[in-house]
Amino acid sequence: MVSPAIALAFLPLLLTLIIRYRFYFVLFYRAVLVRSWKDCVTGLSREERAYQYVLTHAIPGDPDSILEAFDIWCSKVEFISNIGPKKGKILDRLLMEQSPLTVLELGAHCGYSTVRIARALPLGARLYSIEMDQRNAAIAEKIIRLAGFDDDTVELIVNPSDEVIPRLRSDYGLERLDFVFMDHWKKCYAPDLQMLEGSGLLGKGSMIVADNVLFPGAPKFLRHIRKSGLYEWKVHRATLEYSKGIRDGMAELVYLGIK
Amino acid sequence: MPRDSLITSENDIDIGLEFAGDEDEVSSFQEEHERERHRAKRRDGDREKKKRRKGRRRRASRAGEREDELQARHEKREAGRRKRAKNYQESEGRERDEEEQAQIKTGKTAKTKKNIKNEKTRKVEQEEGEAEERNAKGKKKHGSAKKEEKDEDGGKCAAKEKTQEVKKKKHKRVVETSSEQETSEEDVNEEEDSEEKELRPESLSPEELEKLKEAVDERKKLIQGLRGKPWSMKKKLVTLRESQEFVEKYEGALGKGKGRKLYAYKVMMAKKWMKFQRDFENFKTACIPWEMKIKEIESHFGSSVASYFIFLRWMYGINMILFGLTFGLVMVPEALMGRPYGSIPRKTVPRAEEASAMDFAVLWDFGGYAQYSVLFYGYYNNQRAIGWLKFRMPLSYFLVGVGTVAYSYMVVIRTMARNANESGVGDDNSFNFSWKTFTSWDYLIGNPETADNKFASITTSFKEAILEEQESRKDDNIHLTRFLRVLANFLVLCCLAGSGYLIYFVVRRSQKFALDGLDTHTWWERNEVNMVMSLLGMFCPMLFDVISALENYHPRVALQWQLGRIFALFLGNLYTFIIALMDEINLKREEEKIVKFNITTWEASLYNSTVSENSTGPPITIQPADVPRGPCWETMVGQEFVRLIISDTMTTYITLLIGDFLRAVLVRFLNYCWCWDLEAGFPSYSEFDVSGNVLGLIFNQGMIWMGAFYAPCLPALNVLRLHVSMYLQCWAVMCCNVPQERVFKASGSNNFYMAMLLVILFLSTLPAIYTIVTIPPSFDCGPFSGKKRMFDVIQETLESDFPAWFSKVFSSASNPGLVLPFILLMVLAIYYLQSTSKSYKEANVELKKKLQTQNEENKKKNKRAALKAQMDLEEARKAASQTAEQQKNNNASLQDQEADEEENHSSSQRLYHGKNRRNPPAPVREQGLPATRAPVPRNYHHGNHGAPGYLPGFPRQSEPRMHRVPSLQRH
């Protein structure tokens, strides 16, 4: 029988852990506990709840207002891992600098980042957005239309990314991707990037931006870009969306081509 | 005289024409002829002068050569000769002086022409015997250069003839420009006399050899002084390599026959000796224990982590000496010469414990056989002298106890003093950004990852510093920061109080357990005190670390706060423990009284029974194990300390294995199948906790100091622990830790550690001294049993082992009437030293200020001087364009005279500058002056003078020079 005094001696350790990792506990609470509770109570999925909120609080046809509504919902009500306003600003800046004509987005989720990218695109540019999940894709579709982007600007492809990427050239007639944004499954970052390299869609100067490379993190992806030598890359350090204390990064890659 | 001047001017025209493209053999030959004549004349003049013997000889030989080749020279193309001459000049210039080279490169042709022209003028002057000395010097100088040429290519003497003449002038200037050349020249002059004495008749060409020697010496000097030259690194390297090659090549060639061999041998030996020295240095480095390990860690983790290991190594050294003292003077003599185990009760396990005395659990708690061994105080006998050596055991025991503490004090204080000397005197606050810019890199980092971290941390520190600067101007957030700092301290205090109470509670409980008897309780309950102390010592610092994030200090300051807090925590824990021990000692002493009484009754009863049973039988022998004995509080204290050390060590190692190793393994291998990046994200790898480890080490040492008197085995245990922990921690750091995110240099904190160590040393000797002085030793165990106090052993030794007068002297010396004045004197001395050091410090600060202001003033002055010089130059230039016409009207003879005057002036100035080490480039220009002033055709003059700043016959031109020379010299 361990005496109570020894148990008490572990109190500082407990306190330390709680204080040090408080952001993770908060995140766990918001992203898992609250979500499953609401799922049970409302019978709707998290994305559907978000859509309802946006529908009631945003001005249709105004992408900024839609994004703002999303941000409020995600920071105040529940948690969805969108790109978020802070990292979104970096993304906006990169898009402005690059002004790409063909953009590929992997992982539309519920359309937040799609709207964000589409809003920053120059005239005549086209965004291909890939989403694997049927229900999420339906909501993303609605959100995109709500923001006022038509089929010519944004094309939503409902399929897993590893199926779509090899067929991009044949089915969608793409020659070159100017900009790729990755925000789907973190495990798929590295294989999808290799697939993109293999497909020959990346030209010299194509930019690839990958979100959440530090948390939840894509170590294989980072290792690949570090070792392949095909890219000029850097990681924009930031915090996780809608959270202050968790460090995260967004990788920015510029394809240099095979030397 | 007029003829000479006529001829020179004629020659000048010739040369000018030649360089312009006209090649006239006849004229050049004429020129040669003229020169020859001049030379012969001068030689005649020289012959009278004894001092110049050497130069004369050289000249004579040269003249001989010239005569031989006079015929051949006619056939040679004049142009080719010129070219060669130029080449020589160029190559030589490269070797000799950068400035010279630059000059040649910029205005190659112009320079050559000028030089030749100067040559002419000079010759004219030499006729008058004006600049005799200078010229000879130039010759000598030039001679050494000539020899180089000879080495490189043997022939081409004809061309050399010309070049030599040209070069003479140039050498002169080289000498004046760089002070080193000047000194070397002086050396040459000195050597001259000795060379004359040791003229070797057997040598074929002693002149050449001497020249070679000179050249070699010169090169050596060049190599030595290369570091201080204001050249680019590339040039330095090239020069170094060339010079070294030259020295290598020709050093062996010096000397002939026997001398040569000897010389070669000497050189070889010197090289061997140097190599040996280098190897010896390497060997010495290799002999420093763990040096390479620590260096490797340093390169990976920066100097703060390495400083911990260096501290650990230092500690190990001290413990080795403590161990040597106790082991060699206490444990080994007792084991070898003292009475063997089982001979007397204090050296025997009691009958009641005999059954379990060899159990591992008992031994692990340092009971049983471990308790009744040399490891603890109680085992030692109070016999005055043991063995055939008559070793004074009790005295030795006492003196070793005192000696270890005294030695520790000495070492710690000495190290502190040395560190204080080493530590820089810069204040971090006044030039924050400069400090950050120039001193933030840790040059010992050799690992790219650490370098990245360091880079990032420097960047962030800059960002933070800028933000701080802005905030300090804004000045509105300071209240929040202050509040947070106060809050953090409050929380830490709460934490300290909580831990103190917990330990107090545990100690009280353990006393209750002790009264109940330990066997009725579980292992957990028996080891509660140690466990709780170790756990609190481990976890509270982590909590402090988290709390200190509130305060937003610079990491170095934060580290010091952290250290201070942990220090307070450990100190509180330790003192709680000691207070508990004191209570226990008192309990034991109560028990002792009862036992003492019981023993007398027991002895009496034993005696009575034996007497009553058998009055005539042999005296009864009782087994020592059966004799009842006192509790022996000293051994108990020693045991407690040993247990504490053991549990502390175990906790440290287990923490290391679980907290670092297991975590690293989990992070590393679970990362393949985990949903987030474990390495970069949440658990990550651990960082090396410098402050916690250092404090652990310090407190561990404190416990050693406290307990070593009652358990002589403690230093040995500690050495073992430190040895293991050196290897274990080195391995753990390299294998499971990542470099700190904010790598910072540890240079500042070294003395902080030392100061803490000193405090701990003081605090740990306090209770030890208290127990020694106030508590009487146990009556039946230990070396001091039977005495009233432990230090009585000194008095006893004084009385019985020393002559009577000595003890008399000692007793009179320990008389308060003598001791008090002595203490007073010491206090006065300390006060005096303190005040002097303070005044020195102030003087230092003053001097620094003065230096700074002087620096600024110098800067200003230089700026002003440069400005003025520039203005003067402008003015002169303007004047030059205005008076271009006037010059043409000046007659040649007047100019000549003036030029002579100038020569005198400049030469005298040159002499003056020669003494000066730092020779400014100004004289170079001056030297160039006579050249421009020489009687030359105007057309030529105009075409080549790039910056006609100094013009002949212009009265103003002396002014800028007057200004420039002093201003530059002040540099």
UniProtKB/TrEMBL annotation, chain A:
Similarity comment: family membership: Belongs to the class I-like SAM-binding methyltransferase superfamily. Cation-dependent O-methyltransferase family.
Catalytic reaction annotation: a catechol + S-adenosyl-L-methionine = a guaiacol + S-adenosyl-L-homocysteine + H(+)
Compartments in which it is found: Endoplasmic reticulum
Protein name: catechol O-methyltransferase
Any one annotated GO CC term: endoplasmic reticulum
Organism expressing this protein natively: Dicentrarchus labrax (European seabass)
Gene Ontology terms: biological process: catecholamine catabolic process; developmental process; dopamine metabolic process; methylation; sensory perception of sound
Classification via Pfam families: Methyltransf_3
Main location: endoplasmic reticulum
Transmembrane segments: 6-29
Keywords: Catecholamine metabolism, Endoplasmic reticulum, Hearing, Membrane, Methyltransferase, Neurotransmitter degradation, S-adenosyl-L-methionine, Transferase, Transmembrane, Transmembrane helix
A GO MF label: catechol O-methyltransferase activity
Catalytic activity, EC: 2.1.1.6
TrEMBL record, chain B:
Bias (Acidic residues) ranges: 11-26, 182-196
Region annotation Disordered: where it falls in the sequence: 1-208, 873-971
Chief place where the protein resides: membrane
Record-level Gene Ontology MF annotations: mechanosensitive monoatomic ion channel activity
Residue span, TMC domain: 632-747
Protein transport keyword on record: no
An individual GO BP term: cellular response to mechanical stimulus
GO cellular component: plasma membrane
Similarity-based family: Belongs to the TMC family.
Ranges of compositional bias, category Polar residues: 1-10, 880-896
Bias kind Basic and acidic residues: ranges: 30-48, 62-78, 87-96, 116-136, 145-166
Bilayer disposition of the protein: Multi-pass membrane protein
UniProt subcellular location: Membrane
Transmembrane segments: 314-336, 357-380, 395-413, 483-507, 531-550, 562-582, 694-717, 752-773, 813-833
Basic residues composition-biased segments: 49-61
Alphabetical UniProt keywords: Membrane, Transmembrane, Transmembrane helix
Protein name: Transmembrane channel-like protein
